[in-house]
Amino acid sequence: MQKSLTITKSELAEKCGVSLGKIRQWCNVDYYEELKKLGYKKEQQIFTPCQTQYLKENLLEYSER
What we know:
The protein is mainly alpha-helical. It has one domain. Helix content is 60%, strand content 6%. The protein has helices spanning 9-16, 20-30, 32-37, 49-58, 60-63; strands at 7-8, 46-47. It has a two-stranded antiparallel sheet with strand order 1-2. The longest helix has 11 residues, at 20-30. 17% of the residues are buried.
């Protein structure tokens, strides 16, 4: 079983090849309701393992890299 990892907003932006502003839009607008159910708060900088897994499964840009 693969261990779940955390990732920062900056690391996610780099991995997806997008700006930090785009990550904020995705997390604070586009996917906010789903992430909120996983305990996400707009001001947090590091995603929990559960949030990281959600993003990995739902962001096409993340999964292609």
